UniProtKB/TrEMBL annotation:
Domain Saccharopine dehydrogenase NADP binding: 6-125
InterPro entries: NAD(P)-bd_dom_sf, Sacchrp_dh_NADP-bd
PANTHER family referenced in this protein's UniProt entry, alphabetically: CARBOXYNORSPERMIDINE SYNTHASE
Pfam families given in the database record: Sacchrp_dh_NADP (PF03435)
Gene3D superfamilies, per the entry: Dihydrodipicolinate Reductase, domain 2, NAD(P)-binding Rossmann-like Domain
Name used for this protein in its record: Saccharopine dehydrogenase
Protein origin, superkingdom: Bacteria
Length: 366
């Protein structure tokens, strides 16, 4: 069991607030809410009856000998970073580290610190959230059901009514113009965001939707962690009209305007003022042995509040690190946890797990 405190960097933000509140109620007095805005950290501490402790902290100017890290055993990172300097400082002090980052390039940089983490007895957990995170666990669930699984296709539907932070909106705008590589049939293939539309059926009231490629990091991670040949991630919004409009803007070349900061600012203000959908989400994974044969099994999780679920996932991982011992090194969430056991432990009553056999006459693992 960890004996130090849990430091939540960005602990008063949209996701960080969920992490801080959940852990503060679980282990009062052992959670530090940190960020550059001390007033916001102090206000959250007061709101939670001082179950969490406020701290002013700028990770861009911190050194590995920083005194504030002396009592910390776990860090939960809820903000984006430009480099791995702070991660390295944590690892070199033997601090366990959790990151909700979804940028595949940045996650790759942290993966390269595996030997460093092992030498300092630090456990680093990545892909902590909804996508990546829950999607990775669902892919692992598929692998437990499909013998000799070779591919997994991920489908994500996000609610436009969700109260997203500014960073989430900017990621969506920049993703529209993204070009990236995926592993397909064991080969590396170049693809573009919001192209190559594919129809899928989501469980519940949303049913049949057209989804488009999107540069979520899960599709870059899962082929390595589950040792399969192909993974692709496609997404849509809960509003079919807005999904089509987004794809049309890309097709007409107008998506390039979304790169402009001033355009992003205007759109963020409008989307935060006028929410055009619900806060519901669905993540689904289909899997099989080969694409010619088609998917054999699918499973999904639906619920409300993407940010809330991401915070609950991060808090649960932190709880496990606090209460138990794990191997040292850098891991993604699916390498440490059993899918259904983990999702059921989140204590989120509106999360719904569903599964379906897509083909008959095939052997289920076990």
């Amino acid at each position: 069991m960890s004996k130090g405190k849990i430091l939540v960097v960005g602990g008063y933000g949209a996701v960080g607030r969920v992490v801080s509140t959940t852990l503060g109620n679980l282990i009062p007095g052992e959670v530090i809410v940190a960020g550059r805005n001390f007033q916001k950290a102090k206000e959250l501490s007061s709101k939670l009856n001082h179950k969490v402790l406020p701290l002013e902290l700028d990770i861009t100017s911190i050194s590995k000998d920083e005194e504030c890290l002396a009592t910390v055993s776990i860090v939960v990172m809820c903000i984006d970073q430009k480099n791995t300097h702070f991660v390295t400082h944590c690892i070199q002090r033997g601090i366990h580290y959790i990151d909700i980052a979804a940028n595949s390039a940045f996650l790759s940089k942290i993966e390269s610190l595996d030997d460093e983490a092992k030498s300092h007895n630090s456990t680093v957990v990545l892909s902590v959230g909804l996508a990546p995170g829950i999607t990775n666990l669902l892919a692992k669930q598929c692998q437990s059901m499909v013998q000799d699984m070779r591919y997994a296709d991920i489908y994500i539907m996000l609610g436009l009514g969700e109260k997203h932070g500014e960073a989430a909106f900017r990621w969506a705008f920049e993703d529209l113009n993204d070009q990236f590589s995926i592993k397909e049939e064991g080969e590396i293939k170049q693809v573009r965001s919001f192209e190559d539309g594919k129809e899928t059926i989501f469980p519940g009231r949303f049913e049949k939707r057209i989804t488009y490629r999107s540069n979520f990091s899960d599709q870059h991670i899962i082929p390595k962690t589950l040792n399969i040949d192909s993974t692709s991630t496609r997404m849509c919004f809960d509003s079919a009209v807005m999904t089509c409009l987004y794809a049309l803007l890309k097709k007409c070349g107008l998506g390039r305007l979304f790169k402009l900061r001033i355009v992003q600012n205007i759109l963020i203000n409008l989307l935060q003022l006028f929410r055009m959908g619900s806060d519901q989400f669905v993540v689904k994974v289909e899997a099989g042995k080969n694409r010619e044969q088609g998917a054999l099994y699918e499973c999904s999780i639906s619920g409300n509040g993407e940010g809330n679920v991401t915070g609950l996932v991060a808090a649960k991982v932190a709880e496990h690190l606090y209460m138990s011992s794990f191997a040292s090194g850098v891991f993604h969430i699916e390498q440490l946890f059993t899918p259904l056991e983990f999702t059921e432990s989140l204590g989120c009553n509106d999360l719904v797990f569903e599964e379906r056999l897509l083909k008959q006459n095939w052997a289920i693992v076990g």
